[in-house]
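thought: fold this chain, then report.
action: predict
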Amino acid sequence: MHQQSNEAKGVNSRPNRLPTLSREQINFALDVTAEHLPTVVNVLVKLMAFSALFWAVLKVFLVADKAGVLYALLFSGMHLPFCLFSVLFVLWFFDEYQSMGYFALFSAVINALLI
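observation:
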């Protein structure tokens, strides 16, 4: 009998200190998220594309500083123009065709890393 009264006291039986949300609060949070999430994702994807381009150009400039401009252009190969084209593709197509925009973002990041 003594064990039965203490059985519920375990790790999972802590009192819930988080306030419970009402159904209206949950629906409001979901509505706000659904309204603003596409804009946030759009900005983040374009920011990541610009970051990839910045990284690619920075790497080419660092190599040009150490070994010369001709070596830097040979070092970057076609990855720098592909990265630039992919960033332009993200800016142009992401609003209308998101799948193509994500593919272009992937291409921009991969080309920036391959330099």
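thought: worth noting. The chain has a mean pLDDT of 88.
final: tokens above.
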